[in-house]
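Q: Predict the assembly, please.
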Amino acid sequence: MANRLKIFLPFGILVVLILIIPVLVMLIASFQTLDGGLTLDNYHQVITNRYYHLAILNSLKISGITAGVSIVIAIVGAHALTKLQTSTKQALITLFNMSASFAGVPLAFSLIILFGNAGVWRAITTALGWPNGLNLYSLTGATFAYTFFEIPLGIMFLFPVFEELNPQWREASAVLGASRGFFLRQVILPVILPNLVEVFILLFANAMGTYETAFALTGNNIVTIPTLIGALINGELTANVPLACTFATIFAGLMTLIVWVGNRVTRSKWEVA
Amino acid sequence: MLSSTERFYARFVTLLIFIYLVMPILATIVYSFATSWVKTILPEGLTLKWYQQLVTNPDFSAALVRSLGLSLGTTLIAMACFLPVVFYVNVYAPSLKAKLHFITILPFTIPGIILVTGLIQVYANLPIPKSLILVLAIALLSLPLTYQVLNNAFIAHDFRAMFEQALVLGERPIPAFLKVILPNIKSGIFVAMLLTFTSAFGEYVLTNLLLGGNFETLKIYMYRLMQSNGQASSVLTTIYFLFLAFISLILILIMRHANTPSKERSKHS
Amino acid sequence: MSSAFLALKDLSITLSGATIIQHMSFSVRANTLTTLLGPSGSGKTTVLRAIAGLNTRVDGEILLDGQAIQQLPANQRQLGMIFQSYALFPNLSVFDNVAYGLRVQHQSAEAIEQAVTGMLATVNLSDKRDAYPHNLSGGQQQRVAIARSLVLKPKLLLLDEPLSALDAQTRVDLRDQIRDYQQKLGITMLFVTHDQAEAMAISDDIIVMNAGHVQQQGAPMAIYTQPANVFMAQFIGHHNLLTGDQLLALGCHHTRTQAVRAAHHYIVRPELFFREEPQNAGPVVAIAGHLISATMLGDRIRYRFATAVDQLTLTVERLNHTTPLALNQPLTLYLREHDVQEVGPHA
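A: Predicted assembly structure:
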């Protein structure tokens, strides 16, 4: 027992100091005023303030669309990846991992060079007389930017799922006389659907929590929940940490709920307990 | 067993996605060598002067040193906290593994922006150095990644039997760990350290909000440059990309080196 | 010999650039259980997959019941196939797995209910109809896979090492059950295995393959007693494989049919050495030496017998009810010349 304590001590201290205490304090602070009194006013503001509604709506819009588009591309990509040679697969996974870690300031900057007002894309479309469709600093622009890390992330999550599908299922199905479509409907789709839902939720949650890319790309032009929290903390609006705590609490509660419900829904009766 | 059309399709699709993802990075690299590239299809000329300018700037070296120091500290703390736990759970208490699984979804339910809110509320006015809190917080945020990589390192062998064998042969626990377990998981530990280091090196949210720009790491510096000097920023972004590419290369080489038989075993267990 | 139900004519198979099978021909009689036997890498699974239509490139002809099927896609060949890994669909219950092929054919719910229930009774899994594959033992899973194929009444059932993933006892039980289904339902089965004992135990016919070629085809008895060449002699169990030189040195100058030739190979089966000199058995060779080891095999004991002739060691087997022989004592064993079998010249 003494040994066990020693082994868990550093880990335990870290989790208590950096995770448990801050999250609890955050929860309490979400019910406090700036000078420490108890109040429900923060929650009332979140519910009534138009600007805050916009932040929530923007976050949901960007995250929903990014996660949806990215998972479709990731399905195609991860499926294609399983058909490559083993060494190529491993190298590509590492490269996808790299491009996911490129998210944030460097990604925002790169996209501005390519698609910004003075960018190459603008030069090309102007030269060809095409409409300059993409406004990078808009909601669409942010959604577009998010795909650059959501797609590789989705591929990395989905690759093991596709890799574990037994190729002999398809062969067994063919010998039993079934067409490819019948097989996809009856076997593959039911088998991977829970994973697809799970990965969609993770991609959605990841986009919801993205601060760096949104902030670096649009500053405070496009307000999302994370950039709003950031602004409330460092005083770009007016510093109001308790209100930031309220948003953070709502966010953490909502995400925990979504992930938990997702887990419940996707647990199927044929899966090993 | 694949037909050539299938293989062609797979390569084509992967290549397409890869090009899409790499395109902005490539543009940045070209931009960093361009004398000027504004509203034209191709850059006007090529030069190395932006590199010279950035590398000789004292702000750059200061930011680099801060980032390296921060990453190193984070990596050491992360290993000190997680390695004993992963070892213990794998060797002595596999049943605890399921309970620790919540760790892997932590970054999705409590991402950096949420964690930092709580940290500021708690520590903003306490007389504890913020940089210490920062290092600890980044270590915690790297936990899911570190935990999974370390955990994978333990799957390949029956470490419990090996460890107990060493004890039966008269070895004390810590030398037994160092002599029997460590050599077998060292590449896993190395990969975990690299990934922790990389994620700390690229950290932005916590550093920016917790220390409010008073502690200028490479990423913060990059953001400042981005607002003021596009060429310098592109150079810094390119350097950052090269750093990531270098780490990826090391990871690929390690994976090539890792023998496939042990992977086969892990599949069955 | 009745007519060929399945015939492979001049079959060549190329997989990712490498030719695995070259110009292979063999045939399988109707209503038999025929085994494709061979060491791993001999190409037997490749041939089976070609018959099922699961290979991408096949040259030559595959005739099933007189009809050329090599151009048909797998889902139109009306065959059954059993995989080593069972390949059950994890999201479907036992009932739905077995019903899969019937649903493909859009059969009515009552017809499906009736056929599947009957089939599950045949394979003794009626009580598992609502279970999912992961709840079943390996043997049960393989029986579901067999039921899933048999319920479609295939013309031919292909079995690709169906027993290798099972434990020893289940392997023997299921092996006998498969033979039983084959005889009861009167269907033709082609069974791939690398296990000779398994092949010997259930087959009407055995086709031995090595390196993409058929080495020998015949009934189990013929395969065991009359190996056609040196590979066969080495592959089938513990036969003593001797050169003519060695036989001559032991004092054996004739086989049943002809004189021993120095450069040829011969086999002597381990159970055909005698402790006492056999009477009225034609010419007999006496071999002096001593036993150096004994291995208990249950019904038999296997000895290593060191002869007086330059370091030549023979394998000798004796039934367990005879008196055990003492090791390291001078001993003379007797061999009838007509038990010596020629297998061919040096490879």
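Chain C has nine helices and 18 strands. The mean pLDDT of chain C is 89.
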